[in-house]
Automatic annotation (TrEMBL):
The keyword Lyase applies. Residues 10-320 form the Tryptophan synthase beta chain-like PALP domain. This is D-cysteine desulfhydrase family protein. Belongs to the ACC deaminase/D-cysteine desulfhydrase family. The keyword Transmembrane does not apply. Its EC number is 4.4.1.-.
């Protein structure tokens, strides 16, 4: 099927590489075999703007500019990769950026927050409870604040996960399937970390639109399986409404693995940190404890259990997150 895309501003360096992880494949193969593991390097979409959010923001920025907006407002945790990417995209396009951040500024800015500040984004911090209870009001407050000063602000939801942002991963599905085909295979499985659901929604919908047989699985890093089942459906429903498509979100094959969330969002136990170190030393690939490290750790457990034994090729989408690794520096005492 020919997909026709809405306005898009090119920001990412595409296509990102698709690489085999043969030392990991060998180390984690079991007596009953297992797939060749590949990684789609979406951590290489750009340097500072790296990661999955940049693909979504190409379409979000396209829409914001088309609507004559000069300001972007978005939200997330203090170490949000999405906020950091938005801050840099705004600077790149000469737009103001207002970040609504969950948590407080304690001590010296680090990781993503340091980059937000370098990029000149305005930051407002809210205690988690107020953030969760009042997020829509906080967006209205800041939209109004900019309107009163003669600016037009475009609101971007958490992770740019909605019917607009998921275009980024519909396009990425097309790219990924072409990469695989150029390497001479059809992937049976595509795996990613899932946090606000948009990456998974885009990949799931993209594979369906392209009639791919690949099964997309999101490894949840927070919430639970029911949450992501309905979040992915909601994003696709929104997409269908925006595009006037007749895709029925109830026909989608949505797969969530919620067994490796651990203690909660941005909280991980030692095996995850050890897996991050193993993978860095084995393959030169840097994962983060909030998203990709947690998801990849889960994937390795499932490989070990033989869950993918009938699969020949599995693609892990590396969604980025490197800046979020450094604030966790004290979690690696075993390296000393
Ligand atoms: C946001 C993010 C994810 C999750 O993507 P969603 O589309 O929000 O589900 C995964 N990995 C990294 C590094 C992220 O920043």
């Amino acid at each position: 099927m020919e997909i026709s895309y809405p306005p898009r501003i090119q920001l990412a360096r595409l296509p990102t590489p698709l690489q085999p992880l043969d030392r990991i494949t060998e180390k984690f193969s079991t007596p009953h075999g297992g797939p060749r593991i590949w990684v789609k390097r979406d951590d290489l979409t750009e340097t500072a703007m790296s990661g999955n959010k940049l693909r979504k923001l190409e379409f979000v920025a396209g829409q914001a500019v088309a609507q004559g907006c000069d300001t972007l407002i978005t939200c997330g945790g203090v170490q949000s990769n999405h906020c950091r990417t938005t801050a840099l995209v705004g600077a790149r396009l000469g737009m103001r950026v207002q970040l609504i951040l969950r948590g407080e500024l304690d001590g010296i800015p680090d990781g993503n927050l340091l980059v937000d500040q370098l990029a000149g984004a305005s930051t407002a911090f809210y205690p988690p409870r107020q953030y969760f209870e009042e997020l829509p009001e906080l967006f209205s407050h800041w939209q109004e604040f900019y309107a009163q000063r003669g600016h037009k602000a475009f609101p971007i939801p958490t992770g740019a996960s909605d019917g607009l942002g998921i275009w980024g991963y519909i396009a990425a599905s097309e790219e990924l399937l072409a990469d695989c085909s150029a390497r001479g295979f059809v992937p049976e499985h595509i795996v990613c970390a899932t946090g606000s659901g948009g990456t998974q929604a885009g990949l799931t919908l993209g594979c369906q639109l392209l009639a791919s047989t690949a099964r997309v699985t999101g490894y949840a890093v927070c919430d639970n399986a029911d949450y992501f089942q309905s979040k992915v459906r909601a994003d696709v429903r929104h997409w269908s409404a925006l595009t006037k498509s007749d895709i029925d979100e109830n026909t989608l094959n949505i797969n969530v693995n919620a067994d490796y969330i651990g203690p909660g969002y941005a909280l991980a136990e030692e095996p995850v940190y050890r897996a991050i170190a193993d993978i860095a030393s084995l393959e030169g690939l840097l994962l983060d404890p909030v998203y990709t490290g947690k998801a990849f750790f889960g994937l390795l457990q499932e490989l070990h259990r033989g869950s993918y034994r009938d699969c020949k090729n599995l693609v892990f989408v590396h969604t980025g997150g490197q800046f979020g690794l450094f604030p966790h520096r004290e979690k690696f005492p075993f390296l000393l």
